[in-house]
Amino acid sequence: MNLPPLIVAMPLLAAILLAVFTKVLRPRVADVVAIAAALGVSVMCGFLYRQSLSSPLVHWFGGWRPRGGVAVGISFVVDPAGAGLAVLVSVLMLAALVYSARYFEKVGTLYHTLMLVFLGAMCGFCLTGDLFNLFVFFELMGAAAYALCGYKTEEPGPLQGALNFAVVNTVGAFLVLDGLALLYARTGALNLAQIAQAVGDQRPDGLLITAFVLLAAGFLVKAAAVPFHFWLADAHAVAPTPVCILFSGVMVELGLYAVVRLYWVIFSAPFAGHGEALRALLITAGLLTALLGAVMCFLQRHIKRLLAFSTVSHVGIMLIGFGLLDREALAGLIVYVAGHALVKSSLFLGAGLLLHRFGSVDELKLHGRARRVPLLAGVFVLGAFGLAGLPTFGTFLGEALMSEAAEHHDYAWLSWCSMLAAALTGAAVLRMTARVFFGWGAAPDEAARPPTTEDEQRETRNDHTRLPLVMVVPTVLLAVTGLFSGLTPGAAGAAHLAAERLHDRPAYIARVLDDQPVPPPAPATTPALTTPLLHGLASAAAALILACLALFRPRLRLPGTVRGVAELRQVHSGHIGDYVAWLTLGVAVFGVSCAVLLR
Amino acid sequence: MTFLPYLVVVWLVVVSLYGMVTSRNLIHLIMCLAVMQSSTYVLLLALGFRTGGTAPIFQDIDVGTRAVDPVVQALMLTDVVVEATVMALLLAMTVQVHKHTGTLDPDQLRALKG
After folding, report:
1. Interchain CB distance below 8 Å, A156 and B100
2. Beta-bridge mates of residue A67
3. What's the confidence (pLDDT) of residue B2?
4. CA closest to B40 among chain A residues
5. Its membrane topology, per UniProt (chain B) (predicted)?
6. What pLDDT does A451 receive?
7. Which positions in chain A touch B22 (Cβ < 8 Å)?
């Protein structure tokens, strides 16, 4: 059974082919090859996911199986969570490639090569069971992403965004490398299961805590937790739109996935005695991220930057889901990631269509200009309610599962905070939709003021009269799938199974090292959906009210907010040095808190 | 067991972070990133070092001979390859930034804000 390595090898091979024959290929051929490769990977990932449901698959490269419980070789471990994420990655990549076939005026084969490398690296990242392998795929994914982000090298905006992105994430990667080196020094192993076995469940000491801090902080840089989030808005605002859906939809979540995986496989047993403390710490970080992202999102007028900050906010909600350190919450997190990816990618593709048709993504410049594209307005309205967590969306189901888990741990108030954050991001998108598509609100004199972020550059030629079908179809399909993602029969059950496999440490170790079958999953409890249903509806209503307030009562300001808001914007300075300073501070605070709480 | 290499690691991390925060030139900033990368080399090699150990090539020496850890050296080599790519990419972007804006000072680059 050689599917797992093929999932990484196939896109990489296709990328090499495209790179080698770049001079002789016609432009359309590159599109076809890339789309075919992405389609092939999606099908294989789907097949792997089906297979992984009964029992996780373990593939040892070169046949280097463990002998007597000692693993020397490198393994891929395919469990439902990892394979499901790989499915999400490949489907979004497929949508992005189909969309970009008509999106760019002129794009070299290099773009397709980079996209395929990006795909291979992300899939490898989802499937690997080896710590160093995880780092290599992390860096490969990063390198491809930096290049894609700065793809339009003729503009200063994308270059600066890509530089900020690359520098901050590379610092994060070094933290990961230091952390894994320390773990190797302690255990002499790089296989996750082997490390877990060697670490055992003794009380954590300084070395283990340091390794955890470095690994978690490094991956949380990718996951854009506050205060590591500064790069995200810069990168997402300037990257080509089809790339944005991968950045926002999955790449950021992959950072969180790595933390979740490492915590449950390696650190959950040593840290078991400190669950409460760690829970409080992670939830605080998630809460800060969710609220700060939501406020910043609400303040934006550049639509892509607005969506980028909403990603920060939603990652915060996901971080809360992980921070509850609970199987139920984990299941909620998995549903939330999938639901959010669908909604957010349809919104980004919608923003790309606006840019294609009207040559701008500035909310105020576009005021009332898009009255004649009701389809696109529908996509944005759906997306806004998806972000706010209206029932029927996957984001709602995920939030419901997470808030139920939060109640078990006496954090019932948490769901109100997540609701507020989600409503704010939904309101921002609703406000923008009402302005751009319906011309609501006073025609703002602010439009005369220069935008804070440089307006979107010409990725496409200005003012097309029609929207190409290959761009509309993925957008609408993603939006509609997002709308019904919460109603999919068995979604909660599948998430429960994935969460069970993800968090069952002894079963993982036995499966990988001793080839033992995994125990059957515990029966999933179906959550009572009445309270969450009210929450979801309230959140959607709050989004509507907030959007109306922003449109029709622009002078309404809470006392003291104006200065706070100005300072908050000032902090997001676009200066690499500042970002690195915040990162250093964040790691220091996280490290000190862990040292105090986990001893 | 000596603490010196680990002190060097910490020192390199601290100076490189300081350099990046205060840098007024993008090339200098990227070199600081390279210094931070060197700290990972020192850490990896220090972890694998055995006093009195030889090179881990068991061609013509006994299997029981004390040797340094080859795994960390392999990790370090991979790290060199990966980061060389990233550094090259960063420097190429810097060249483009200079071409378009005529400056390398991060304080002058203000296309993204708020």
Report:
1. yes
2. A70
3. 81
4. A178
5. Multi-pass membrane protein
6. 54
7. 577
Choose among A208, A364, A204: nearest CA to A272. A204
Q: What is the 3-state secondary structure (H, E, C) of A150-182?
A: CCCCCCHHHHHHHHHHHHHHHHHHHHHHHHHHH
**Residue recorded with tokens 């926002």:** A248
Which residues in chain B are contacts of A456 at CB distance < 8 A? none
Q: What is the DSSP letter of A412?
A: T
Q: CB distance from A552 to chain B under 8 Å?
A: no
Residue B53 CB coordination number (10 Å)? 13
Report CA torsion sign: B90, B94, B100, B105: positive
Q: How far apart are CA A580 and CA A352, in angstroms?
A: 31
Q: Does residue A49 sit at the B interface (CB-CB below 8 Å)?
A: no
Subunit contact B112:A139, Cβ cutoff 8 A: no
- Chain B hits for A237, CB-CB cut-off 8 Å, are 112
SS3 (DSSP) at A58: strand
What is the greatest pairwise CA distance in chain A?
A: 74
The helix/strand/coil state of B3 is coil
A194 contacts A511 by C-beta, under 8 angstroms: no
User: Which of A64, A132, A163 to mutate to probe the B interface, most B CBs <10 Å?
Assistant: A163
User: For helices A80-103 and A327-358, what crossing angle results, to 10°?
Assistant: 0
The three-point CA angle A156-A162-A164 to 5° equals: 100
Size of interface A-B (CB pairs under 8 A): 135
What SS3 class is residue A130?
strand
**Phi, psi values for residue B67, rounded to 5°:** -135, 160
Q: Is A166–B37 a contact, with Cβ atoms under 8 angstroms apart?
A: no
User: If you measure CA to CA, which chain B residue comes closest to A452?
Assistant: B113
- Cβ atoms < 10 Å from Cβ of A598: 22
Taking the CB of residue A155, how many other CB atoms lie within 10 A of it? 20
- Cβ(A398)–Cβ(A321) under 8 Å? yes
Q: Give how far B31 is from chain A: nearest CA, Å.
A: 11
ipTM above 0.90, yes or no: yes
| A167 to B20: CB separation less than 8 angstroms, yes or no | yes
Give the list of residues 6+ apart from residue A72 with CB closer than 8 angstroms, or none.
A64, A66
**Dihedral over Cα of A272, A278, A282, A283: its sign:** positive
Measured distance CA(A106)–CA(A242) in Å, rounded: 14
Residues of chain B contacting residue A167, judged by C-beta atoms under 8 Å apart? 20, 29-30, 33, 90
How far apart CA A386 and CA A401 sit, in angstroms, is 16
Distance CA A233, CA B113 (A): 10
The shortest CB-CB distance from A574 to any of B33, B82, B110 is to B110
The list of chain A residues with pLDDT below 50 reads 454-458
DSSP-assigned states of every residue in A265-283: IIITTTTGGGHHHHHHHHH
pLDDT at B80 over 70: yes
Tokens encoding A406: 């939060």
Contact of A113 with chain B, judged by CB distance below 8 Å, is answered with no
CA distances from A599 to A260, A409, A589, A593, B10 (A): 21, 22, 16, 10, 22
Conformational region of residue A524, where left means phi above 0, alpha means psi within -120 to 50, and beta covers everything else: beta
- The single residue listed with the structure tokens 């997190």 is A333
Report d(CA A444, CA A441) in Å as an integer. 8
pLDDT at B101: 87
Cβ burial of B50 (10 Å; 0-12, 13-18, 19+) is exposed
Confidence at residue B1, expressed as pLDDT on a 0 to 100 scale: 59
Please enumerate in sequence order all residues whose Cβ is within 8 A of that of A45, keeping only pairs 6 or more positions apart, or say none. Answer: A7, A83, A86, A87, A89, A90, A123
- The pTM is what? 0.94
Is pLDDT of B22 > 70?
yes
What is the number of other CB atoms lying within 10 angstroms of the CB of residue A442?
Answer: 11
Residues paired with residue A128 on neighbouring β-strands, in sequence order: A76
Q: Structure tokens of A525?
A: 């409890």
